[in-house]
Amino acid sequence: MHTLTPSDSSTSLHLLSLLLKCAHLVSSNNAASATDLLPEIFHLSSPFASSPADRIAAFFAHSLHSRLFLHFLSPPRHLLLKSITLSSQLKTFHSALQTFNSLAPFVKFSHFTANQAIFEAVHGFDRVHIIDLDVMQGLQWPGLFHILASRAKKVSSVRLTGFGPSSELLAQTGSRLAQFAASLGLPFKFNPVEGKFGDMSELELSRIDFRANEATVVHCMHHKLYDIIGSNFGLLRVLSTVKPKLVTMVTQNIDIFETGSFLERFIETLHYYSAMFDALGEGLSRDNVLRHQVEQQLFGSEIRNILACDDVDGLNVSRRWGDNLSRFGFEPVSLSGSPAAQASLLLEMFPWKGYTLMEENGCLRLGWKGMSLLTASAWQPSNYSCVTNNSNIMGN
């Protein structure tokens, strides 16, 4: 690992000071003064620098530049959010996510905990229907297929409804998953749906083909790169109607509220991604190509979307979701048993110290050096009637 020299430390502190000053100016709508600061920050930082602080500063500076461009030069709104839906850019993101999965436990953590919770929820059912709100490359599901195929009582049907923004990539994902399921002798069918679960009309929902004799589960793994669910109220409404056997959710522990100032959002984002950069860089060389790929194509894009656009509701899935799921007739399912054991075994696969696993109110939180970064939770329909008053639902 790189050790900061006094000169490095001085430069890093100066960069941090410049970034915070620039963010304050942006928050105050002082675009001219903020723009004047950016050239010095760009000069002192680089996404390829040896120092993590210099790399982080480069990504945040580019995000501030993007925000100034979007807000003061008046291009089409949501430019960054819409451009990511292009197939080529999604492939780049998926490649970076696969690399991230190989370097750090965050993606595996979400897969292991959700799969174990789903496996327990469908015990005794021979027909299983999984709804993945952003299936991407389907990296999570071979693990679940394997443990389902090893059950003493074999399943007679596994259906996976996968949502995504690209029909081309959905078809590729379905083909790969079908081949893997066939190798296990697991009866499998993939139903691709281009679009967002929360935005579906009643007619479009009929394409999902809910069946009474199946154990239906819904999985949602959120990230800050693009909105995967659409209308928050729409998602909650459908869930309360369908009443799946289980809802598993994995969220990043970064809260972005439109009611807060831009400076507050900036500082929250800086703290979060500083920990992510530190965790990713632990045990890797300063010039590691794979680390650079994840930082630029995944973290950098997430930071830009968080900071550059004001319409962050679709990117902001925070602890409020627990309250809203409760209001719509769901109650938490504890992950403290087998899912927690799976997560503990996962962390043992990473030799460096710093990762922490915490249990809180049945949720599992994966953190780095005491800072919680990712939360896994599970929910099931409760016995009380659903509350359908949507007056205070976020995103309405």
Keywords summarizing the entry:
about 400 residues, alpha/beta, Rossmann fold, nine-stranded mixed beta sheet
Structure description:
- It is built from 14 helices and 9 strands.
- With 396 residues, the chain is of the alpha/beta class.
- It has 2 domains: 7-75 and 262-309, no CATH class; 124-254 and 314-381, Rossmann fold.
- Strands 1, 2, 3, 4, 5, 6, 7, 8 and 9 form a 9-stranded mixed sheet that branches.
- Helix 3 (52-72) runs parallel beside helix 12.
- The protein is globular, with a radius of gyration of 22 Å.
- Residues 1-7, 76-85 and 384-396 have low confidence and may be disordered.
Task: Please outline the helices and strands.
Elements (H helix, E strand, L loop, with lengths): L5 H22 L3 H14 L7 H21 L6 H5 L3 H17 L2 H16 L5 E6 L8 H9 L7 E8 L2 H17 L4 E7 L7 H4 L9 E7 L10 H11 L3 E7 L9 H20 L7 H20 L11 H8 L2 E4 L4 H11 L6 E6 L2 E6 L2 E11 L15
Parallel strand pairs: 1-2, 1-4, 2-3, 4-5
Antiparallel strand pairs: 5-9, 6-9, 7-8, 8-9
Coarse structural class: alpha/beta
Using the CA coordinates, give the radius of gyration. 22 Å
Instruction: Based on Cα principal axes, name the global outline.
Output: globular
- CATH class wording of the largest domain: Alpha Beta
Low-confidence stretches: 1-7, 76-85, 384-396
**Which fold name is given in CATH as the topology of the largest domain?**
Rossmann fold
CATH architecture of the largest domain: 3-Layer(aba) Sandwich
Largest sheet: 9 strands, mixed
Q: Give me the count of strands.
A: 9
Quick one: CATH superfamily of the largest domain? Vaccinia Virus protein VP39
Span between N and C termini? Answer: 47 Å
Overall pLDDT, averaged? Answer: 85
